[in-house]
Structure formats: C-alpha cells, structure tokens
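mind reviewing these tokens:
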Amino acid sequence: MLEYVLIAFIAIFCIQFIFYVFIFGAFAFSKRKLPNTAFNKPVSVLICAKNEAKNLKKHLPHFINQSYPNFELVLINDRSRDKTLEIMKEFHQQYPTKIKIVDVKENEQFWGSKKYALTLGIKAASNEHLLFSDADCKPVSEHWISEMTQHFSEKDIVLGYGAYTKVKKSFLNKLIRFETLLTAIQYFSFAKIGSPYMGVGRNLAYTKSLFFSVNGFADHIKIKSGDDDLFINQVATKNNTTNCFSANSFTESKPKTTFKNWILQKRRHVSTATHYKPVHKFLLGLFYSSQLLFWLLSIVLIAFLFNWIIVASLIFTRFLIQNLVIGFSAKKLNENDLVILTPLLEIFLIFVQLFIFIKNTISKPHHW
C-alpha cells in the first residue's frame, strides 16, 4: 500500500513542480516591460460605495490628488443607508469639475446587485478608459492612475494588485496577505502565459467599448458577486490583457480583523469561482488538490519512514522551488515579510479553504 502512496506522492510532486516552475515562474521571474508608446488620454475612475461614508471621507483625497492630468472621479452610491451620498456631495462641492455622482435607486429587477450599480456608473462615465477601485481602498501613490493606464496604449484590460495594510504581530493579517499574494501570483501568472482568468475590483482597468461589446455583466447578472473576476474571466484573452505590478500602481485596503469576517468574505469569493470557465476551474482545482495531497501523503510516508530519503528530498526540492517563486513574486509586490512563513501559512490556508468549500456546499454565502 505504501508503494502506491509513494507513487501518488511523486505524481503530486510533479504536478506542483509544473505549476510553480512553468506557470507561476512565468510571473515570478519576469521583468517589468513598459509600453512602447505613452498614454495620456482622459480616464474615468469609478468607485462603487455602499454604506462607506467613513472610508470615502478618509480615502477620496488620495484619488482626487492623483497627478494624472486628465481624469474624472465617478462616485456610485449604491442605495446606502448611512451618509455616503452626503460625503460624495461634499467632495463634489469642492471639486465640481472632477467628480461625478451616480445615485442608484432600488430596482426590483436587480435587487441588491452591485453589477447594476456599476453598469449605471460605467454608462455615466465620460471617458473610454475606465479604472476601478473600492471605497475601502486608497492608491499607495499619486502616480497610480498613470502607472495603471499607461498599459492602455497596448491592451484593453489591465490587471493590478490590491494589497492589504500590514499589521504587526497579527497572524490573521499575515494569513490574509499571504492568501492575497498567492491569488495575485496565480492571476498574474495565468495572464502572463496567455490564459487570464480573473482580476480584483480593488485595482482593475478596462475600456468602456469592451464592456459594452459583451453587453456588460448580462451573462452573469443574476450572480450577485463577480463584477470583477467573472467579467474578466468572460472577456480576457492573451491578446487584450496585461499585468501592472509596479510599486506605484498598487492600491491598499484595510483587511478584516476577525477570522469570522474574513471567512465570510472568502466564502463569497470562492462561490464566484464556481462560475469560471471549465479550464480555469480545472487548473485551479488541480493546484489546490495537489497542495492538499502533497502534505497529506508526505505526512503518511514520513510517519512510516517509507523511503524517507526520497520523500524528504522531494519535500525539500518543492520547498526550495516554492520559496524561490513566492520570494521573487513577494519582492515584486512588496510582501517580503511573508516568505519565511510560507510553509506555516500555506498549510493553514489549505485547511481554511477546505473548510470554506465544505461550508459553501452546505449553505450559500451572503453578498454585497
């Protein structure tokens, strides 16, 4: 029986090797390439907010004070019950030529749909080139618009990185940031090899004409989540999509502070992934399954000391390759402090994801 376990373990190692070297390595070991031509066309920055008065008051100055010469800020109030709309109007009074407000009313046909609110915002946007973020985010630099939109000179979709604020002496913070880093490595890498499958709404750009060429969110409008990743999964190709991971192009958000709230957030994200294209669901499922099986089978083999030299060598090789890939990627995305904790964070995350999968199978998560 242990011989079969060893064979399975070697096969799983090979799958992990392929993922880390040939897929994730495409991003980890890549060099940043600047577009051949400059981009200086007008840009519309869209922020959809629901009960985000405090965050808007705190973060809007970071968007308004961007150094880009020609942009508008489209603020979308999605049926808020707090003072979100009032805060938007206050900023509009200060910057009437730069800010546009879209006040979304209740619509029984699209009840509680962020996609409906975003669609209205996109229709109201004056410009062809759109850049998206969230109310609980802020750009890390005044050059955020410039860095993200410069890639519009060659592509219609730009995938960016949405980081989370670092909190000292917090394991949950490191776990959240590690999961975000691993997700970014995945979607940047798949885009790099010509098979883009998702982006994050905290930092994403695409053209208005592309949005309307596929009737916007029509194909998945009944799915409440996925205004970012499902749309990208639908329209992104190797010819129209690129990555932007320069330090000045990041956005930053405050992460969840309790495991319960983070689990609820991840349940929503995972439920959306079930609607990806079959090839992406297969590859992402294969990667997660191979992660889980690698550790389970290695524990069994080590426990029985069965061919332990071979097993230990494969574990060490996988650990070395993984740390190189995650290390180079973390350096690009300014997450260097996570690398040393990779084995611990990975194992913990694997079982969190298993719990989420089982939980989502039993009951559906709540959305927006």
Remarks:
- The chain has two domains: 2-28+278-362, 43-177+192-257.
- The first strand starts at residue 43 and ends at 49.
- The beta strands are 43-49, 71-78, 99-104, 129-134, 137-139, 157-159, 162-164, 204-207, 241-243, 251-253.
